[in-house]
Amino acid sequence: MIILQRFAELVIAKQNEKWMKNHGGVEFGHKHYRIMVGLHSLFFLFLIGEVYYFNKELSPIWPVLVTFFIITQAGRVWALTSLGRYWNTKIIVLPNAEVIVKGPYKYLKHPNYVIVTLEFIIIPLLFQAYLTCIVFSLLNIWILSIRIPEEEKALTKLTTYSQSLGHARRFFPKI
Questions:
Q1: Region at 168 (left for phi over 0; alpha for psi -120 to 50; beta for the rest)
Q2: What is the pTM for the complete model shown?
Q3: Cα–Cα distance for residue pair 154/171, rounded to 1 Å
């Protein structure tokens, strides 16, 4: 089910990418994008592999984890619908576009990345796939440490991002 959701999101992202590029959108972050897609794809393969190879079962606390998962999915939908046509899996910025400061973006600069981080923890824990949880959580932190600064640099360059979201919390603090 989660994999089907991701494919549906990719279809939406492709439509949004086409719309944004047709309206002058500029793409950034080419170098890390393929790595990020590979990471997300391998996450599911490793999860399935670990569960089947080690004959893992649902966690005894699965009702709690499923509840947290449902909450993250509601947050995911909230974040994506708040961005509307501006949401994408790539970093595409429409020059001089109005920066979105509604929905979860009133409170956080990168709510979708927070949600993805939580998913990389919750989903493996649901199946007691601790190796997948640890490895992919660390890999996710690594890729986001590249992705978020690249995204913020692009948004700052082409929009009023710095001024618009100055009040929102950062996912990764400036070092």
A1: beta
A2: 0.88
A3: 17
| Cβ atoms within 10 Å, residue 136 | 23
Check if the beta carbon of residue 60 is closer than 8 Å to that of residue 126.
no
Q: Bridge partners of 26?
A: 93
Share of residues in the chain with pLDDT > 90 (%): 83
- H/E segment holding residue 91: strand 91-93
Q: Which of 92, 83, 89, 109 is nearest to 28 (CA)?
A: 92
Q: Is the pLDDT of residue 168 over 70?
A: no
The residues near 102 (Cβ < 8 Å, ≥ 6 apart) are 82
Q: What are the start-end ranges of the H helices in the chain?
A: 2-22, 30-53, 62-83, 111-126, 130-158, 161-164
The CA distance from 131 to 139, in Å, is 12
Tell me which amino acid residue 4 is: L
